[in-house]
Amino acid sequence: MPVTASQTEPESIEQALPPIAFVDLETTGMRPTRDGITEIGIVLSDQGRITEEWSTLLNPEAHIPWKIQELTGISNGMVRDAPRFEEVAGEVAELLQERLFVAHNARFDYGFLKNAFRRLGIDFSPRVLCTVKLSRCLFPHQPRHCLDALKRVHGIHADQRHRALADAKSLHFVMQAFQQKVGSEALLSAMQAQYRRQSLPPHLDEHMLEGIGNTPGVYLFYGENDVLLYVGKSVTLRTRILSHFSSDTASDREMRMSQQVRRIETIETAGELGALLLEAELVKQRQPTLNRQLRRYRSLCSIQWDIRGGGQPEVVAIDRLDAANTPHLYGLYKTRRAALKTLKQAADDYRLCHKHMGLEKGDGACFGYQLHRCNGICVGEEPEMQHRIRMLEALLPLKIKAWPFNGRIGIREQHPASGREEIHVLDHWCYLGKVSHEEALEQLDTAVSARLDIDIYKILRRYLDKSGSIEIIDLAS
């Protein structure tokens, strides 16, 4: 039997509840900045009673994918003659004005409406309450909190699912069921707690943020079934983690992450360099689904050319950098195709001859000369040395920097608050590992030879260029 409110509680929740708008949207996809709204359903509630119901189909001005049509029952034909959002925006804004915006997985519905209003130059910033979070707070041991599960658990019946007005009305009955089972005081307390934590994702337990401070380190977001979604780094972990969720309505990737994240793991480091290196390592090892950068690759290429030799630049495979090859290498690339593309762009920017550079075959004038994009070395109109000097000008910005030390070094990082110390061992732009104190350097395998990594090279170059107070330990001897 349902649990009813105690007689000693406030007279009724209705007297304390603000005016509410229960809102549900149907859309063409999951991206609030690009996908469109196909239906809006709004149920207004005053003092716990429904006072108005409003809904409309909308023309999203985009194709509705077949899977979405199957899910919602809304076809392209149904919305072809429906109004566009801009035609009903004024009415929607009036309905929602000065009301608590309540939705299931509210960041999704709120994100779509906020972006739709933003495109019209209208600021939409209501107070938001998520019934997923509210359910998790009130019934933490309940395994699922999707709308179908809540309706089943609380005995709520609705004729249509994944239609906006029916789902919005279901939320009103869900709220009533919450009040009946836990009482008015507990419900109001949980609602007020949610106001203070609006930016947290709907499926993330707030206790997972406990103990995460503003220290350097790496954070890992996990989704359903503990699938790794994303790896990031920061010198202020807590602030960076929360920033993902406060900006999710303006970013498709952040919204997708916010909807999927279920668990957060953090690994503290002594400083910024440790966080950068660990992030690159974890992304390559674990292959998180939402990381686009720092991915694993098979080998590296570079453009090799010696101005004194007079030959053509050549794309070569490379696995190490040393004093012998570095002076003649320009750029690191994950594929041969990427290296050739860079070489061709440099040729076009500096009016170099594709044929003379080995980028084009055949006899006579190159194609660029016919388009007045080559100075004519291919037909004898430009001296060899002049062309060679311009090729050096084109490649010089890509030149790989020589390793500025005699050999291996250690970079010491120490966090001033925690006292955590890490010494990162490096040699010719390769990362060989880390130890927690200087005495442990003797135990590090000095025979190890790490493979050259383009991301580590870029991290180390930027770090060494910008940091003026790095503590370097000479390990070359």
Which helices and strands, and how do they pair?
Layout lengths: L19 E8 L9 E10 L2 E9 L8 H7 L3 H4 L5 H12 L3 E4 L2 H14 L8 E3 H8 L8 H7 L10 H19 L1 H12 L21 E6 L5 E7 L2 H10 L5 H9 L2 E6 L3 H15 L13 E5 L9 E5 L10 E5 L2 H14 L17 H4 L13 H12 L13 E6 L6 E7 L2 E6 L18 H13 L4 E4 L3
Parallel strand pairs: 1-4, 4-5
Antiparallel strand pairs: 1-2, 2-3, 6-7, 6-8, 9-10, 9-11, 12-13, 12-15, 13-14
Helix pairs in contact: 5-8, 7-8, 11-15
Explained architecture:
The protein is built from 15 helices and 15 strands. By secondary structure, the chain is of the alpha+beta class. It has four domains: 13-195, Nucleotidyltransferase, domain 5; 206-286, GIY-YIG endonuclease (3-Layer(aba) Sandwich); 300-398, no CATH class; 409-474, no CATH class. The strands form four sheets. A five-stranded mixed sheet has the order 3-2-1-4-5. Strands 14-13-12-15 form a four-stranded antiparallel sheet, covered by helices on one side.
The secondary structure category is: alpha+beta
Report the portion of residues in β strands. 15-25%
Task: Report the principal-axis shape.
Answer: flat
Q: Counting H and I runs of at least 4 residues, what is the number of helices? A: 15
Q: End-to-end distance, in Å?
A: 79 Å
Radius of gyration: 30 Å
Total individual domains = 4
Compute the average pLDDT: 86
CATH class of the largest domain: Alpha Beta
Supply the CATH superfamily name of the largest domain.
Answer: Ribonuclease H-like superfamily/Ribonuclease H
Task: Give the H and E element order.
Answer: EEEHHHEHEHHHHEEHHEHEEEHHHEEEHE
CATH A-level architecture of the largest domain? 2-Layer Sandwich
Helix content: 25-40%
- CATH domain fold name of the largest domain: Nucleotidyltransferase, domain 5
Which stretches are low in confidence, meaning pLDDT under 50 for 5 or more residues running?
1-11
Strand order of the largest sheet: 3-2-1-4-5
Would you count the extended β strands for me?
15
- Specify the biggest β-sheet: 5 strands, mixed
